[in-house]
UniProtKB/TrEMBL annotation:
SUPFAM superfamilies: EF-G C-terminal domain-like (SSF54980), P-loop containing nucleoside triphosphate hydrolases (SSF52540), Translation proteins (SSF50447). This is Elongation factor 4. Required for accurate and efficient protein synthesis under certain stress conditions. May act as a fidelity factor of the translation reaction, by catalyzing a one-codon backward translocation of tRNAs on improperly translocated ribosomes. Back-translocation proceeds from a post-translocation (POST) complex to a pre-translocation (PRE) complex, thus giving elongation factor G a second chance to translocate the tRNAs correctly. Binds to ribosomes in a GTP-dependent manner. It comes from Rhodoglobus vestalii. It comes from the Bacteria. One of its GO terms (cellular component) is plasma membrane. Its EC number is 3.6.5.n1. The gene is lepA.
Length: 622
């Protein structure tokens, strides 16, 4: 599609009256990135020749998985013709935001940098749980909402029905809900027109001391930290000295510019503009998201309202399969941390797995992504222990202990254990309400209410332990509802529960990597599951190996692996000594990939499979 804007936009320092800042909010897969791509080509900032799918998703993982992890900001020119035929040039700043619940904090940051939000809804699916969550966030930030139905090219699209649904939700006329296709481009120019018309211009004081809000900070191997900001008051220019208000650290601005979508240096940034700063800082922590940047010589006294820091919710131990890779893993984590402020880690050791790190993540998707990046970008092979949430354990002798690793669960008399809770909302077609309620109850959920959205869908509200959601809840929810239900959740304090630690013992010795904190009612099931899994995974040894599950000293499940002596030379009769030696060498190599737990040899693969649940067993297939 050829661009409509027939003029060139001044690179920056635009009059705020002609700036529009907006973001696109949507449920995952409703087509944000595709629409953003289309906007880039419609506005002409990316030529058709340079266009590639998911232009703004720069990480390989983002592109492969088709998801957005980091927010991106891009400036685009647009022209609006008024009734008298006068064409006015505008600068549109679009911030693409991630849709997955793990990355909600990225969304809230982007929202605070905008005056408007395009609420994008798949015309074949309608409103989903994250549509609602993001919409509420946008409303809290007082943004102008532009409702849009996407994917109207799909044969299954039912725009009339879903326009009604959206109208009912935000209280507008169904006819004002725009209809577009990010794929074919239909309706996109009209959407940009409407956004330009309806979204208010940014307001700020151009003569006040400079204040810019940091909404993202990324580490670039060549340029150091690139800080993305939205100017609120005043202006900034290259070579100026700026100060981060929370740390009072001062830096010289080496470069200031806008992304359009490639970084373009400018003479400065003025009120309402969105752009980037480069100061030569090497650590993203010095350029903290939510902080206010001001002028060093003429500082502002009033910092802008920051964001709450992202808090890790799920912890897992990461261990290199080859112990000698430990320093590489440390370095890799240090590097990832530069660009991922939400990642936390500290060294830990495991009897079974050796040296590794206990890492904190925003959720399971975040964990998977970090793990994949470590494997891919740093060539590391790793074992990740079962994810755990944060428990607070009260014991008589130790007081309160915060436990993120089951092996730290205190021994002795425990008075109470609290676990993190979440408020979950699940949106499902009404036919599946029964099965969803059953699932939530089996995960210790307490129902808080339900309401209809449109005529055939229901939003269910539950409080549930986070620990019950983070593992496979979503998979079960999807399979029970034929993929139709969607889920969103937010933290909701802590609550006491009857939780116990289950240990798994091999020949009487506890294997720390397999310990888990579970509800007492589920302890037996976990014990049976793990002992059975391990029985299938650990090869027979020269002696019998009992596998037991225990709560404290009480054994709750038991399996055993029968004894066997594997004589590799059995088939090697005759006198060929070199062949025998070769076989023995091969056996030795194999043993290197084994971990010794007491006297028992456990293959690495067994740890990986037992921890990831990749074992075929009748009991696991629910
Ligand atoms: N038919 C059709 N398919 C579309 C349209 N827009 C997006 N899609 C498809 O929908 C899927 C999801 O699109 P994305 O743009 O990656 O979705 P997203 O909302 O950006 O996803 P996240 O970045 O993970 O939040 C992709 O397979 C797209 O090709 C459209 O207008 N029509």
């Amino acid at each position: 599609m050829s661009p409509r804007a027939s003029y060139t936009l001044e690179p920056a320092l635009t009059d705020p009256a002609f700036i529009r800042n907006f973001c696109i909010i949507a449920h995952i897969d409703h087509g944000k990135s595709t629409l953003a791509d289309r906007m880039l080509s419609v506005t002409g900032v990316v030529s058709d020749r340079d266009m590639r799918a998911q232009y703004l998703d720069r990480m390989d993982i983002e592109r492969e998985r088709g998801i957005t992890i980091k927010s991106q900001a891009v400036r685009m020119p647009w022209a609006l013709t008024d009734e008298s035929g006068f064409e006015q040039a505008y600068a549109l700043n679009m911030i693409d935001t991630p849709g997955h619940v793990d990355f909600t904090y990225e969304v809230s940051r982007s929202l605070a940098a905008c005056e408007g939000a395009i609420l994008l809804v798949d015309a074949a699916q309608g409103i989903e749980a994250q549509t609602l969550a993001n919409l509420y966030l946008a409303m809290e930030n007082d943004l102008t909402i532009i409702p849009v139905l996407n994917k109207i090219d799909l044969p299954a699209a039912d725009p009339d029905k879903y326009a009604e649904e959206i109208a009912g939700l935000i209280g507008c006329d169904p006819l004002t809900v725009l209809r577009v296709s990010g794929k074919t481009g239909v309706g996109v120019p009209e959407l940009l027109d409407e956004a330009t018309r309806l979204i208010p211009a940014p307001v700020g004081d151009p003569s006040a001391p400079a204040r810019a809000m940091i909404f993202d900070s990324v580490y670039d191997a060549y340029r150091g930290v690139i800080t993305y900001v939205r100017m609120i008051d005043g202006s900034m220019a290259p070579r100026e000295k700026v100060m981060m208000m929370s740390t009072k650290s001062a830096h010289e601005l080496l470069e200031i510019g806008v992304s359009s979508p490639e970084p373009t240096a400018t003479k400065g940034l003025g009120v309402g503009e969105v752009g980037y700063l480069i100061t030569g800082v090497k650590d993203v922590r010095l350029s903290k998201v939510g902080d206010t940047v001001t002028n060093f010589a003429k500082p502002s006294t009033q910092p802008l309202k920051g964001y709450s820091e992202p808090k890790p919710m799920v912890f897992s131990g990461l261990y290199p399969i080859d112990g000698s890779d430990y320093p590489v893993l440390r370095e890799a984590l240090d590097k990832l941390k530069l660009s991922d402020a939400a990642l936390v880690y500290e060294p830990e050791t495991s009897v079974a797995l050796g040296f590794g790190f206990r890492c904190g993540f925003l959720g399971l998707l975040h964990l998977e992504i970090v793990r994949e990046r470590l494997e891919r970008e740093f060539n590391l092979d790793m074992i990740a222990t079962a994810p755990s949430v944060i428990y607070e354990v009260m014991s008589d002798d130790k007081g309160v202990t915060t436990v993120t690793n089951p092996s730290e669960f205190p021994v002795g008399k425990i008075t109470s254990v609290t676990e993190p809770m979440v408020k979950a909302s699940i949106l499902t077609p009404k036919d599946f309400v029964g099965t969803v309620m059953e699932l939530c109850q089996s995960r210790r959920g307490t129902m808080q209410g339900m309401e209809y959205v449109g005529t055939d869908r229901v939003e269910l509200h539950y409080t549930m332990p986070l620990g019950e959601i983070v593992f496979d809840f979503f998979d079960h929810l999807k399979s029970r509802t034929q993929g139709y239900a969607s889920l969103d959740y937010e933290p909701s304090g802590n609550q006491t529960a009857d939780l116990v630690k289950v240990d798994i013992l091999l020949q009487g010795e506890a294997v720390d990597a397999f310990s888990a904190i579970v509800h007492r009612d589920k302890a037996y099931a976990y014990g049976v599951l793990m002992t059975e899994r391990l029985k299938n995974l650990i090869p027979r040894q020269q002696f019998e190996v009992p596998i037991q599950a225990a709560i404290g000293a009480r054994i709750i499940a038991r399996e055993s692996i029968r004894a066997l002596r594997k004589d590799v030379l059995a088939k090697c009769y005759g006198g060929d000594i070199s062949r025998k030696r070769k076989l023995l060498e091969k056996q030795k190599e194999g043993k290197k990939r084994m971990k010794m737990v007491g006297r028992v040899e456990v293959p690495q693969a067994a740890f990986i499979a037992a921890l990831s649940g990749e074992v075929e067993s009748g009991k696991e297939k629910k």
